[in-house]
Design a protein that fits this description.
The complex is a heterodimer of chains A (499) and B (102). With 499 residues, chain A is α/β, with parallel strands linked by helices. Classes of the chains: A alpha/beta (499), B mainly beta (102).
Chain lengths: 499, 102
């Protein structure tokens, strides 16, 4: 099924309802549909192949996404933060393609063989031109909806393939058509090249929730937009939420319109979510876990789960505040051990998922097994009630003398120390043990000593999990979507060992 | 009738349109208002009428299923006829109560 049909249904049933943009001057569903069709007709005349997006968030983004869908061509958003050389190499891989670039980014992507670069302003004008809008789109049987490039921290970025059927299945199985109240508005602040940036467009349109884009995230702009646009729903990655809370606290702002805040895309420190629950008592919190390859969310910890966990004295219920909730209906999830055996409740292994929204594919290579299961490369375990706990990437697991140690567990313990502001735990090469546990720590207030931190960990975890070295840092390396760059730290340690 | 996923169908007797989400396990006839549905691109013929047994209507954005054959269809345009598979009325899938996550 075609993602363009989602917009067609919304525009057919609610032509005048606000689809996107500012509260004062929204774009209605019928207008969004007309722009997408006009844009599609014009793009078809510019060149063949994928439609590349190089730019900030904004109201043109959903138009371009749906225009690509109407044409039946893949939409490929690129990371504008990449250095020029990397960006141009990636853009060259999309050829043949038509690239829509922010006017001030156009030069960065010009003169690449097979890539027709056009300015966003020219595309915007074409979407409004009656000559383009009058053209009846040809029916196409679409296939690939979106190509998303991975961040490529381990080599050349890979292009994850999301077909129309995966995305459409995700939308219709998780969102009730036009079920949002008239006053609902969603604020999107993750960048366009992030899966949540793509899925937010589709689910908001289908659900009838006005879509507001923040051009690029800063906590101050986010709070200003949330207040000014009377935002009711938003999604943030954990590092963004922490910074938003700082601004809210400093300004005494309580965002009375905000009803639902979902977070995902990384491990949420318990201290941050507990603070958020206190600062925004009227807000429903949702922890969502998903991957690019699964068309976004596959499990959610809902508002009631949050409240039950925080109110409980039972440690098993309480700890669910750190879980990613239960798998969505219609999806299957298993934890598997090293030889592919299904692990019992409470035992960690690799998270496998199967279902219609699960693409599990890179250009030229499917990762699905013969039965359609997708190995997520995440380590996790399920509790007795089916709540999933994700411990991190399998590649990040530290193997010390044959024992598998999950860095996330040690980081959680250290982060709970009052003088630890941030922490990363990685495996360092070790002649005797294969790997040893190494911690990178950002302190606050009076800096604790390595011995104090070791005593803190030893009191809470098995002694083999106590870090053997500590590096004290002013800050840790993150990418712009809040993912900790563990490999940067590992490389530093490896270089040190080699020297 | 090639009921493949993503294929679009329209009623022969009312405004109803559907898109197929999940195909039936064996060849079957998808009907609306008691009449076999038509491929989306084909023309309606004027002389057929809605059967009174299949006149409960279809609702936009609702998913309809036939448990026996495993078929699921999404109503993309509502109409006065109701949906059936080989004469068995399709049932409307319950609305899901999932919190917004993106």
């Amino acid at each position: 099924m075609h993602t363009a049909l989602l917009l067609e249904m919304a525009a057919g049933a609610f032509p005048d309802r606000a689809a996107l943009g500012a509260r004062a001057a929204p774009v209605a569903f019928a207008e969004l549909q007309a722009r997408a069709r006009g844009g599609a007709a014009w793009l078809a005349a510019q060149g063949e192949g994928s439609i590349v997006w190089l730019g900030l968030n904004g109201p043109t983004l959903p138009v371009a996404l749906f225009a690509s869908g109407v044409l039946g061509r893949p939409f490929a958003p690129l990371n504008y933060r990449l250095p020029d050389d990397d960006l141009r190499r990636l853009a060259a891989r999309t050829a043949p393609s038509v690239a829509i670039a922010d006017d001030d980014m156009l030069a960065r992507i010009s003169d690449i063989p097979g890539v027709v670069a056009i300015a966003r302003s020219a595309f915007d004008a074409a979407c409004l031109d009656p000559a383009n809008r009058e053209q009846e789109p040809e029916f196409v049987d679409p296939d690939i909806a979106v190509l998303l490039f991975t961040s490529g921290t381990t080599g050349e970025p890979k292009a994850a393939v999301l077909r129309h059927r995966h995305l459409a299945s995700y939308v219709i199985s998780t969102v009730e058509f036009m079920d949002a109240d008239d006053d609902e508005a969603a604020l999107v602040s993750v960048p366009p090249y992030h899966i949540a940036g793509v899925s937010a467009v589709l689910t908001s349109i289908y659900g009838g929730r006005r879509l507001v884009h923040l051009a690029a995230f800063t906590p101050e702009d986010w709070v200003a937009a949330a207040a000014g646009e009377e935002i009711t729903h938003a999604m943030l990655v954990p590092t963004m939420l922490g910074r938003v809370l700082d601004v809210l606290e400093a300004r005494g702002e309580c965002l009375p319109h905000l009803r639902s805040l979902s977070y995902g895309g990384g491990r949420m420190p318990a201290a941050v979510i507990e603070r958020a629950l206190k600062l925004l008592p009227q807000v429903n919190f949702v922890n969502a876990y998903g991957l690019t390859e699964t068309s976004s969310t596959i499990s959610v910890l809902g508002p009631d789960d949050h409240r039950a966990a925080i109110a409980s004295d039972d440690p098993d219920v309480r700890r669910r505040l750190g879980s990613v909730g239960r798998v969505l209906p219609g999806l299957e999830l298993e934890i598997r051990g090293p030889s592919g055996e299904v692990m019992p409740t409470g035992s960690a292994g690799e998270v496998y998922v199967r279902g219609e929204q699960v693409a599990g594919e890179y250009l030229g290579k499917s990762l699905l097994d013969a039965d359609g299961w997708f190995p997520t490369n995440d380590q996790g375990w399920l509790d007795g009630e089916g709540f999933l706990f994700v411990e991190g990437r399998l590649d990040d697991v530290i193997v010390r003398g044959g024992e598998n140690i999950s860095p996330g567990e040690i980081e959680d313990v250290l982060r709970a120390h009052p003088q630890v502001a941030d922490v990363a735990v990685v495996g360092a090469p070790d002649d005797q043990w294969g790997e040893r546990v190494a911690a990178f720590v950002v302190t606050r207030g009076e800096a604790p000593t390595a011995d104090e931190l070791s005593a803190w960990v030893k009191a809470r975890l098995r002694s083999t999990k106590t870090p053997e070295t500590y590096d004290f840092r002013a800050e840790l390396p993150y990418n712009e979507t809040g993912k900790l760059l563990r490999r940067v730290l590992k490389q530093e340690l490896a270089a040190k060992t080699a020297a | 009738m090639d009921l493949k996923p993503g294929s679009r169908w329209k009623s022969a007797v009312c405004d109803t349109e559907v898109v197929l989400v999940r195909p039936p396990s064996a060849p079957a006839s998808l009907e609306c208002g008691g009449q076999p549905m038509l491929a989306h691109a084909s023309q309606r013929v004027a002389d057929a009428a809605i059967s009174p047994d299949h006149a409960a209507g279809s609702l936009l954005g609702k998913r309809y299923v036939d448990e026996e054959a495993g078929l699921e269809a999404l109503c993309s345009k509502p109409g006065a006829g109701s949906l059936s598979l080989d004469g068995r009325p399709l049932t409307m899938k319950e609305a899901k109560k999932l919190p917004a996550s993106d």
